[in-house]
Amino acid sequence: MNKKLLSMLLVGAAAMIQPSESSALRLEKLKYADFSNWVTRTINESKVIGGKTKTLYEIAPAKSINGNVAYSNQGGSPWATSNVYAKVSGVVKGSNSVSPASINGNKVAKLESKMEEVKVLGLINMDVMVAGSIFLGKLNEPVTSTKAPFAKMEMGIPYTKRPVALVFDYKVDMPAGNTRVKATGFGGKKTLQGRDNAEVYVLLQKRWEDAKGNIYAHRVGTGRERYSKSVPWTTGHQIKIQYGDITKQPGYKSWMGLLDGNKAYYAKNSKGKMVPVHEVGWAPADATPTHVLVMASSSCGEPYVGTEGLTLYIDNIAFGF
């Protein structure tokens, strides 16, 4: 064998055994984040809006739930979805924007921005833009209004480790247009310029509660990405987690900043009341968190605004160390 051929073979062999970016990390998989198990819910919508039967999906051990029953996390699953059983002024509506899908023969989560239509000839004609989202936490059902959507979501779970990355497989299908639609169910639909982005993030917080039940937090770690174009199926993708105040770090964007005011997420305080979590500052870079937030969504904008058809597929979410 000549030296040139031997060199080529050795280089090829080295490439085959070279660890990938994600395999170089020790992975701590999130429970049920392989998305191979789903709860199937059957919701019967009110006759006044057509009486359709809707199928809703949740991320938990396989099970069927029939009937208009408020859902709470099953089987120890830490995941909630944007799928919702709503009961507004006695009228029942189901919405499903997260569902199982198959990619390369493997079951994954499909998150889709879509228009929910409520149409009854001569009586009702409403459109609501919904985004497909999954997050660590809980959604309190039944939802009774479209106001203050964050106040219905318990965002985050207790967590005290310090991973270096969020690792996952994903794909983005981005429609060709360059517009978004705002549709809250009231006042019709409004077309806005600029397409929406899909988004995945991990936020680590150090939370505390005062005597009045208000919850505050310092941001310990931040990893956040937005996707403005189609991305082919990609395995082992990493979002690096930066610790401490990242506002002067390369790549910092304003949407990576602290969440307060109308951007604040909610949690249940020790009195059992849903309250906003006020992020009031950046923790030292060596701080230990008390909670972690992970969300994947087909939208990054305000509620009820999105690019119809924008779809994010995601699988195998893990923390990397």
Jot down its keywords.
6-stranded antiparallel beta sheet; 10-stranded mixed beta sheet; Jelly Rolls; mainly beta; 1 helix; 321 residues; 26 strands
Structure in words:
The protein has 321 residues and is mostly beta strands. The protein has one domain: Jelly Rolls (Sandwich), CATH 2.60.120. Helix content is 5%, strand content 49%. It has 1 helix and 26 strands. The strands form 6 sheets. Strands 5, 12, 13, 14, 18, 19, 21, 22, 23 and 24 form a 10-stranded mixed beta sheet that branches. β2 and β3 (53-59) form a beta hairpin. It starts with a helix and ends with a strand. Mean pLDDT is 90; it is low at 1-21.
The structure class reads mainly beta
Number of strands: 26
Compute the average pLDDT.
90
The unreliable regions are 1-21
Layout of helices and strands, plus pairs?
Layout: H1 3-17, E1 27-29, E2 38-44, E3 53-59, E4 63-66, E5 79-81, E6 84-88, E7 91-95, E8 98-103, E9 106-112, E10 114-120, E11 124-130, E12 133-139, E13 153-155, E14 157-158, E15 165-173, E16 179-182, E17 190-193, E18 198-209, E19 215-227, E20 231-240, E21 242-243, E22 266-268, E23 274-282, E24 291-297, E25 305-306, E26 311-320
